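Reply to dn_fold:

You asked what the input looked like. This is it:
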Amino acid sequence: MSYTERLKNVSVLGAAGKMGSGILLLTALEMAEISMKPENKGTSFVLNAVDVSNEALVGLMKYIRNQVLKAAEKKVVQLRTIYADRADLIENSEIINQYIDDVMLLIRPSTNMEVTYNSTLIFEAIKEDPDLKAKIFSQINENNSYHPWFFTNTSSIPISELDKKAGLNGRVLGVHFYNPPAVQKLVEIIKAETTLPELNEFAVQFSKNLRKTIVPSHDFAGFIGNGHFMRDALYGISEAEKLNKEFSFAESVFMINKISQDYLIRPMGIFQLIDYVGIDVCSYIMSVMNPYLTDEDLHSNLLDKLLEIGVKGGQNSDGSQKDGFLKYEKGKPVAIYDINLKSYIDIASLQGNCDSKLGELPASIKPWKAVVGKPMDEYYKSYFTELKGMKTMGTEIAVNYFMRSKAISEKLVADKVAFSNEDVNTVLKTGFFHAYGPINDFMN
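and this is what came back:
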């Protein structure tokens, strides 16, 4: 079956979710591109958007239409060529509207799993639950005579486990888009030992057509992205717990969040990143990864306590940030949750004392926005040399945090989770928007 034939009937599971909606959008645009080629005129293409809620699917279709409009406006010159044989389409607005209609006609929203039984390719972006994923895969596989391929967006579950549980005989591949898929450039591709090579070949071509940056990962729980993030998060939590012996809980969280953002020149602090992903999601990912680890325990009692209280973080349906370790107003942190007081403490009331205890930042510090995406290795060497030479509380914690991140990353390569140092650096720079890769010689 050719690349085009494989895309004639596709289903996206969990299509109305944050990840599923992005995957659906990207797939719809790729299918439209193919369907509009002269050799495919008149060929039927179907993209099933499958989710459990009709209401959510209505919202999904509005989102897709708006995003397709934006995509069309950016490539109106190309669309004029595609619709060159349409004498009735003259104005740009007419061409754009026709393109939107053509893309939307590909998509069939449904709450019925039965629509997947005619698909040759299944994208899955449902809850990170191995048993649920395997159950659904098995159901589709047993009722679908086309021997479909399954591309799972899992960020932590071993692909070999899903293959074995669902009885897919190698027809499953990890295709981990990063959030949000329509914007994020990174795709982690995870092939189990049993995965048929043609799935990997197709996924690479598909991702390249979407102009994604592709990083392969070995089939080990957590892969590269969560392999680093979960351990990095636990380290940040443990450092805050150490500070909590001398400072209040809110002060401790504030200081580690500031160090992991400002001192390490990252886009956000570790506690803000945990909030962004979701405290509940992070806790669950750790529980998924933990059974596969023999030399460490990925678990946090602190996360358990927060979840018991109902502090979860994560995103609202409109994309705004829910309160977690930090409280947010218009997307910006304004308070820190104190687990002992069970209330949020305004950052303004504790920042002065915390900054005084941490000490001065290095004089050569540059904000993340000023350096991200630029070749700045010489600057980083100079900056981190200065950081290492300072003996304030803040810089000493930052140096240890920096070295821990590097050790986590090097172990991912040593344990053969990542294929190379560069793959780890690419994941952190592209998927997490770090300004520099964690495996470097900046403090040598």
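The mean pLDDT is 96.
Hope that clears it up.
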